[in-house]
Structure formats: C-alpha cells, structure tokens
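Hi R.,

Here's the chain you asked about this morning:
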Amino acid sequence: MALCKSECRLISKKYIVDAKSLLGIFSLDLTNRLQLEISNDSDFDKIRDSLKDFFI
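And the predicted structure, written out as tokens:
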C-alpha cells in the first residue's frame, strides 16, 4: 500500500479499517470477502496492477 498516496479502507461486512494498517487488517475476519475502497481514482490503476495476483 506504499504505492497509494490516498486514503484506502478495507470493508468486511460491518467493519471498516485503514487498509494501510497491519493491525487493522488482522482485526478483520479474513475468511470473509473484503472490499478495498480507494479515495482517489488516480491511484486505482497502480494499486489494481500490484494486487491482481490476489483477486478472486
């Protein structure tokens, strides 16, 4: 997430955490599907390319 200068959030059901926070990520139930929300569209292509191996 160092590529992302904008604010990024991970959403899992009713929980929302800072996607750049390792502690926040580990507080989520990682067996559930996660949604990544990026506040700035200019970072989208860079982030998508770096995470494409993890998409289901």
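The first strand starts at residue 8 and ends at 12.

Let me know if you need anything else.
M.
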